[in-house]
Amino acid sequence: MTENIKKIIEEKLTIITLPNKKKLIEEEIIEGISYKDGHIQISLFANKDNIEEIEFVGKLIKKELQNIEGVISVTTVLTNEPNKRETNNKTEDKKQKIQQINNVKKIIAIASGKGGVGKSTISINLASAFSLIGKNVGILDADIHGPSIPHMLGLKGKPEVNSDKKIIPFEFNSMKVMSIGFLLNDEQPVVWRGPMVHSAIKQMATETDWGELDILIIDMPPGTGDAQITVSQHLPLDGTIIVSTPQPVALNDAVKAIGMFRKVDIPIIGIIENMSYLLLEDGKKEDIFGKDGAKNMSEKEKIFFIEEIPLDKEIRESSDRGVPYIFEKRDGLTKDIFLKAAKKINKII
User: Which of 36, 204, 266, 298 could make a disulfide contact with 271, Cβ separation 3.0–4.6 Å?
Assistant: First the structure.
């Protein structure tokens, strides 16, 4: 952030007055300010009690900062941290907030900054690849507003509860599966605010009887909102995998996701580039969405590049049939790539 822009932003923030007649700065709810290439991001402390108030504050901030010369966009990020005045030891507080999941050895979040990059497809096929190399695997669909895992695995029905009042997950080829999609009607929209999203994800993660798992894959929703904050700050993640296509519009949002996970101290295991290329019948590759975008981003961000997954019609068809490509395909280039990716990740975690 240049000193000039930083000074202007800080001056603008000092003049914002809240509905309670207090100055924004006096309330100590600004956690951080970042500026890069015309984009301003303001991080605000939020919790279930002040979520509506903080959302309104975000609108005030955007209105005040968006007219600064050279600024392209202004975004506010709500971080589910306690107020600074209530704790002098964030590390200890964070440990207290994390909810342990019994008998689950490793937890990996599959994330992206943008929708439509094939994150859920990567999640189910990567989980299936782990299963094929001998791991006990679970899949948690944390995309509260757009759960797609039940459809992609051909699973329907309502989950039952055992004698310990734990949710009994569905199973697909020995993989344990839980999703908000099992609790709703097919056409029922989820119109929930942050606290309800927060509660639903925590309940599915901690109150499901996962059994003995080597790896729990969490299919995250796109973006950097309430669901991502809940998973990052309240579940014991061992790391996250970022999924992106090669094109700049997806890479820009992937960088934001990387920034969020770094901000909450979640290790980034690596990057998977999806829909990297179309393999033609003559064996040549056609770079429909560009070439090496995620690979170049991984080098710039100093993050391990795991694999590139081609744009494969059979992956889409198998997902529509409710069977992961990895289980349906006996052999093939794309299956080998997923298995290689699972083995690489297994070594890292």
Answer: 298
